């Protein structure tokens, strides 16, 4: 009698358990299932009978099926914390947390926990973070005389917000301020620091005739703003009338001048330490000249940080930039990111800013179609 | 029961209705609950809050649950928690008038048991019905 009662109580526990439980064999055939599991999986069953769990899971989590099938000798955990989205005919999908444990040979326990609420909250937070980051990412002042293009690519994977930024600022005397920068970190804190640093730098840019002066201000801002220390940036003041680009860098990859189809050169004479490092050494500017038709490329280091790449990334960047040179500025920036990634996922976020010195109107050289088309 | 002036003590057409009969809901609404014992499919009758008010023998045999353990309990919470989702429980909750069928899987004695369900309710009535047939 006592054993019967104990058995009955165990059954009731199993039956009322709010966590979904299934016992399957190594081929996925369901031996036991509790109501919570049936309730959670019901939306994807249709007219199927839940006799074969693999048949159900193959469409939802094929990796889990593979792990169970391919490791019949492994006892213990086979999958844990695997999030499974259950598509629903209603507005929102459901999200389950799936764990698989082989408790004995040919006996696998599947545990399902409904984490829909948590998942929705995380999704909402993520959406907000993305919106915030995109809204602070950068601004392009309308500048008729200089074609400008920007491309941004978020990192693939979980780190979809970050601290990259750009700015194109209309300066006195028709000059143009160009900034690409990178606050360290891949979270909302980095984004918030970036937003503050970017605004501060933009606000003082019109008062700095020399790039080194602006970078000096940025040093102090970065030291003041939480999370902005050790940011990097490149600043260029471009004068479209004579093609002179004055520049200064703070721990940032050197801008690249693409000179037609012939060559491309990194601007390496204005380097300096990262922002907010507490250095008291003065910043230095350097100058370069863009010939009519030349392009200038500013970018963050994500552009050449590919997973598992060992070849000289700077040479590659130079070669690919020369190849893409004929494109209008915005297409140029896009193409450069695509070519550098070459189909690989982006390990880090990438920001690329391209301007071009318009070919002189009176120049006799025949112009390639579209070569100087404005970016937008 | 509210809304009913008189319950018939025999089926209106003189024959016992079947699971798929078009008029099943109307016939169930017309008769006294004792008659559901004669049905050849499982039937759970609840009030509009989901509390079980009748549970026929066919369903009791299929589920292995004695009727006295089921009556007075909330079906979606205590008796058939596998139906406590938008496919079944919420359909009853959100529809005054309801008559639809769907395939489902019950978990009788922990084994997956494919069934065909028919969800029925009529506005103004104090009852709602869940008919169950094997498939």
Offer a quick outline of the entry.
The complex is a heterodimer of chains A (about 375) and B (about 140). Chain A has helices spanning about 1-15, 35-45, 55, 60-70, 115-135, 190-205, 210-225, 315-325, 330-340; strands at about 20-25, 30-35, 75-85, 95-105, 105-115, 140, 150-155, 165-170, 175-180, 230-240, 245-250, 255-260, 265, 285-290, 295-300, 350-355. Chain A is an alpha+beta fold.
**Main interface: chain pair and counts:** A-B, 26 and 20 residues
Distance between the termini of chain A: 83 Å
What's the CATH C level of the largest domain in chain A? Answer: Alpha Beta
Structural class call of chain A reads alpha+beta
Descriptors:
heterodimer, A: 376 residues, alpha+beta, Beta-Lactamase, Phosphatase 2c, domain 1, 2 domains, six-stranded mixed beta sheet, elongated, disordered C terminus, B: 135 residues, five-stranded antiparallel beta sheet, 5 helices, 5 strands, 27% strand
Molecular structure report:
The complex is a heterodimer of chains A (376) and B (135). The termini of chain A are far apart. Chain A folds into two domains: 2-114, PAS domain (Beta-Lactamase); 128-362, Phosphatase 2c, domain 1. In chain A, helix 5 runs parallel beside helix 6, helix 6 (188-204) packs across helix 7 and helix 8 packs across helix 9. In chain A, strands 6-8-9-10-11-14 form a six-stranded mixed sheet. A five-stranded antiparallel sheet of chain A has the order 2-1-5-4-3, sandwiched between helices. Chain A has 376 residues and is of the alpha+beta class. Chain A contains nine helices and 16 strands. Chain A has helices at residues 2-16, 35-45, 53-57, 62-70, 116-136, 188-204, 211-224, 313-323, 329-341, and strands at residues 20-24, 30-33, 76-86, 94-104, 107-114, 138-140, 148-153, 164-170, 176-182, 232-239, 244-250, 256-259, 263-266, 286-289, 295-299, 350-356. Chain B is of the alpha+beta class and 135 residues long. The A-B interface holds A 11, 14-16, 30-43, 45-47, 49-51, 88, 90 and B 78, 80-88, 103-107, 110-112, 114, 135.
């Amino acid at each position: 009698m006592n054993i019967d009662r104990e058995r009955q109580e165990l059954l009731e526990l199993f039956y009322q358990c709010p966590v979904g439980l299934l016992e399957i064999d190594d081929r996925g055939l369901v031996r036991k299932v509790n109501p919570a599991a049936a309730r959670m999986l019901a939306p994807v069953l249709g007219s199927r009978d839940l006799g074969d769990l693999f048949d159900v899971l193959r469409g939802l989590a094929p990796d889990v099926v593979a792990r169970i099938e391919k490791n019949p000798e492994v006892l213990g955990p086979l999958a844990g914390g695997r999030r499974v989205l259950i598509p629903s005919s209603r507005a929102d999908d459901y999200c389950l947390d799936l764990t698989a444990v082989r408790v004995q040979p040919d006996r696998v326990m599947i545990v399902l926990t409904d984490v829909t609420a948590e998942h929705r909250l995380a999704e909402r937070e993520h959406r907000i973070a993305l919106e915030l980051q995109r809204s602070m990412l950068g601004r392009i002042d309308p500048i008729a005389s200089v074609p400008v293009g920007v491309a941004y690519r978020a990192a693939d994977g979980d780190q979809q917000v970050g601290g990259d930024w750009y700015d194109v600022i209309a300066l006195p005397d028709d000059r143009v301020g160009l900034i690409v920068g990178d606050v360290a970190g891949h979270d909302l804190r980095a984004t918030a620091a970036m937003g503050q640093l970017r605004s501060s730098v933009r606000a003082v840019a019109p008062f700095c005739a020399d790039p080194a002066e602006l970078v000096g201000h940025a040093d102090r801002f970065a030291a003041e703003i939480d999370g902005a220390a050790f940011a990097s940036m490149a600043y260029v003041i471009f004068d479209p009338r004579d093609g002179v680009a004055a520049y200064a860098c703070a721990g940032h990859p050197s801008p690249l001048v693409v000179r037609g189809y012939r060559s491309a050169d990194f601007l390496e004479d204005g380097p300096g330490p990262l922002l907010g490092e507490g250095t008291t050494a003065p910043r230095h500017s350097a100058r370069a000249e863009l010939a009519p038709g030349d392009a200038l490329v500013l970018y963050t280091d994500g552009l050449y940080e590919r997973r598992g790449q060992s070849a000289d990334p700077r040479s590659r960047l130079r070669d690919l930039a020369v190849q893409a040179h004929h494109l209008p500025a915005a297409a140029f920036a896009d193409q450069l990111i695509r070519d550098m990634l070459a189909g690989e996922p982006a390990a880090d976020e990438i920001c690329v800013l391209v301007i071009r010195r318009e070919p002189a109107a009176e120049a006799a050289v025949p112009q390639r179609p579209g070569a100087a088309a404005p970016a937008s | 029961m509210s809304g009913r002036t008189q319950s018939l003590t025999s089926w209106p057409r003189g024959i016992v209705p079947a699971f798929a009969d078009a008029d099943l809901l109307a016939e169930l609404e017309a008769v006294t609950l004792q008659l559901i014992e004669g049905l050849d499919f499982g039937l759970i009758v609840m009030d509009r809050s989901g509390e079980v008010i009748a549970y026929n023998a066919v369903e009791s045999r299929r589920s292995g649950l004695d009727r006295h353990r089921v009556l007075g309990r909330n079906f979606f919470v205590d008796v058939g928690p596998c139906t406590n989702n938008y496919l079944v429980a919420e359909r009853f909750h959100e529809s005054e008038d309801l008559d639809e069928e769907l395939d489902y899987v019950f978990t009788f004695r922990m084994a997956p048991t494919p069934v065909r369900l028919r969800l029925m309710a009529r506005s103004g009535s104090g009852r709602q019905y869940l008919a169950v047939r094997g498939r």
